[in-house]
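Duplicate of #3305? Posting structure anyway:
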């Protein structure tokens, strides 16, 4: 029963996260930013060549033309590199879909294997996301293939966040804490990504004996702010853990109430799992009872 509750809660969390919409918004945002970069780069190149031609005619030297040519080549190489990464991100994102069957998931994982073995960090994260729900241990093994000391700092932060989250879901608090302590939040590209990783770090801190610093970190990210609308569930979950371990029962109940208003099924994340604070589990179970998601009689029998 606990496994079914966890699965329902995970599916509900996945549904609320609306990954398709989030990916579409992210792609549109990047596309707009790239459009701006292209315009600025084009203007920069035009100005560079005009100046080079002016200096060339005045100095009667080819050096300004050589400089302009080098700048053009550098900008062109940079543009190709950025477009290649953008296309690869789109390709990897297309492999992540909602409600995949076991056969579809296995086929997509197999498609990624060759790139994963070559050390492609984007492919590693995509494969791990496909494995995470059904086989978290396999997802961890996949993520551990990336050398975090040599990886791009932004990628390393994202992978640390994913690994810490899996350890937290498995109740492996020491491992989650070690990874969370190594996270550098300044390496996340935008406030939403930073808030998502911060929620994971705060939860790891709170559940491993450091709830005060966990709450101090969470205070920087208002779950009611529009910028954090897509990660509101993650922020409230972390607050519930932090308040419970800080013995702030009112704060804990408030976080659980807000989660239940989003969806009562989310409270199952705190019930029947490993290393959950007893007060937090008791309160979540009580609310699930009232909502009818857990039959009262069954809960009472379990208590005996």
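Output from current build:
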């Amino acid at each position: 029963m606990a496994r079914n509750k966890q699965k329902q809660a995970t599916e509900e969390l996945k549904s609320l996260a609306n990954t398709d919409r989030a990916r579409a918004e992210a792609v549109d945002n990047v596309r707009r930013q790239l459009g701006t970069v292209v315009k600025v780069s084009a203007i920069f190149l035009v100005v560079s060549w005009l100046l080079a031609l002016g200096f060339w005619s005045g100095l009667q030297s080819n050096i300004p033309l050589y400089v302009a040519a080098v700048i053009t080549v550098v900008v062109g190489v940079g543009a190709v590199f950025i477009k290649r990464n953008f296309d690869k991100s789109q390709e990897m994102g297309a492999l992540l879909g909602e409600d995949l069957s076991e056969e579809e998931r296995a086929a997509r994982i197999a498609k990624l294997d060759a790139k994963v073995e070559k050390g492609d960090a984007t492919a590693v994260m995509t494969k791990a996301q496909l494995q995470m729900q059904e086989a978290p241990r396999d997802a961890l093994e996949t993520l551990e293939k990336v050398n975090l000391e040599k990886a791009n700092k932004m990628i390393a932060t994202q992978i640390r966040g994913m690994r810490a989250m899996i350890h937290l879901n498995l109740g492996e608090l020491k491992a989650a804490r070690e990874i969370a302590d190594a996270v550098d939040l300044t390496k996340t590209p935008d406030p939403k990504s930073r808030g998502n990783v911060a929620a994971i770090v705060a939860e790891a801190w709170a559940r491993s004996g450091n709830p005060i610093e966990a709450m101090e970190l969470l205070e920087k990210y208002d779950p009611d702010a529009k910028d954090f609308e897509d990660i509101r569930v993650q922020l409230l979950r972390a607050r519930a853990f932090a308040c419970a371990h800080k013995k702030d029962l009112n704060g804990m109940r408030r976080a659980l109430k807000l989660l239940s208003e989003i969806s009562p099924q989310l409270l199952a994340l705190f019930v029947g799992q490993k290393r959950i604070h007893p007060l937090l589990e008791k309160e979540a179970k009580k609310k699930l009872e009232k909502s009818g998601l857990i039959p009262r009689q069954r809960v009472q029998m379990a208590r005996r």
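Confirmed duplicate; merging threads. The radius of gyration is 24 Å. The longest helix spans residues 19-59.
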